[in-house]
């Protein structure tokens, strides 16, 4: 690779995009011009990358015709070969060519196309508008979630082909192959050193679509999240299991990251984080923090959890309890003297336990409840509520600390008593969701309408 190409690559925005193209070259043997149709691998305003079975001499020139989707004419440019490398398959060559003759009008068309297909620019908008999520849905313009409400950007609708190019532009060949096999893919993406997103690529009615969750560059403390001090006490436990519950998008991952960060600052421990995908990045401070991503570093939560028990851990984070084997192993680890931090999708404490046990066969349900009564340290259920000042959202939380009464309820599978235990558990730093919402309203953090709406919504599930 020439130095010039290296500099161009750093300065020009390049996108992965399979754009139809044709190249022509003069064959000195037959004295005729040969042409071949292929696809670009990526494109910038200064050049293209494509794959070919032919070896091109560095410095040789090619006449290239590009067929940009949505443009009612072709773009023909003269290019010079500046890079030829063998691909991993060993059957083709990656060919880099720089534009040496192109009209200003054609160059602007390519730049326009790159801007439309550069997802990094969309993610910059997400950050500027302080949105929590970006939804890319076929047939609609990009849609942001800002303070819990959906807001469509004033942009063109994205068709299915453009959507596929847009999303595939940030995926590796291996990720694309895996998605095409499973039709689902989760991964973390950092468009810049100061931004990070959790990405889910999925398929709907035959079209590829994506959801992006913005992740704060820094890890907030539990106090900054608005969680009561007792949650810090739970993070300081030496063993047992702590469960963070809540609906999708309620900040469970952020709370778990804050707990790990507290441990990392206060303890000399080996912390193993099993995540799908990795969202917050931890650096070793006082602890050794190992982050393993399901699908990349390990096959599944259950297999990684079993393996982690042989890696000398003190603390194990399990991103989500989502299958019977993971649940059983997590509980065994908690009983064996490790601190296990984990999450589960559930709207309240009782349903968190019900959902956990519902994934276990009936013959093991009583056993799991008995084990939980011995090793459960606490359950934090949280909701995200819009702030009255319009500056983001705030956590409302229900806190359950394991007492003799809670252990009895677990052993007897008598979850209907849990609400009364929480209400009477103030001396143990328990807190009901209703009390948490009321405190936020009385402090002026949320307004009356929000307090009433979320109190009624939470009550529906209790």
Helix content: 25-40%
- Assembly status: single chain
Domain module count: 3
Number of helices: 15
Q: Mind telling me the C-alpha Rg?
A: 27 Å
**Under the CATH scheme, which class of the largest domain?**
Alpha Beta
Unreliable runs: 1-10
Q: Using the 3D structure, state the CATH architecture of the largest domain.
A: 3-Layer(aba) Sandwich
Q: What is the total tally of β strands?
A: 20
CATH superfamily of the largest domain: P-loop containing nucleotide triphosphate hydrolases
Percentage of residues in DSSP E strands: 25-35%
Class by helix and strand content? alpha+beta
In this structure, how is the largest beta sheet organized? Answer: 7 strands, mixed
Distance between the termini: 64 Å
**Biggest sheet strand line-up:** 16-15-17-18-14-19-20
Shape: elongated
Mean pLDDT: 89
Topology-level CATH name of the largest domain: Rossmann fold
